[in-house]
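Table S2 (text version). Query chain:
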Amino acid sequence: MNLLQLSGIEDNSKIKTKVCLKCKTEKPILEYAKHSHYHDNLDSTCKTCRKNLAKLRDKLRKNAPPMPKICDCCKKPPVKFGNKKNLCLDHDQETNQFRGWLCEPCNTGMGLLGDNLDSLMMAVEYLKNK
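Corresponding structure-token output:
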């Protein structure tokens, strides 16, 4: 067993293509930025989709209301989360419409729960029944 196998990191020299989570297209690994938090050390979204998302966020930021001092979800001021202390611009993944300004924990939590009402309601029901 080599060092890469022991560390749980895949050897990218054997991976030639990857499917982008956003556009669902199989592309060469050169189309993905490096990302140390993923098992294959590659971002889950291709560079083209990342660039398009950055353009969308810039457009939404220009038209969004001013950033409030508290999170639109939990109504608390943002706390330092990693190296960030600002609120995140939240948008609907399907309609690309601005939804609000969220603190990093609320934004991450919603994303991990699938960014949809059904998953969030299942989490609410779980908490209500415990």
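Notes on Table S2: Helices lie at 3-7, 47-63, 104-112, 117-128. Residues 65-130 form a domain with the His-Me finger endonuclease fold fold (CATH 3.40.1800.10).
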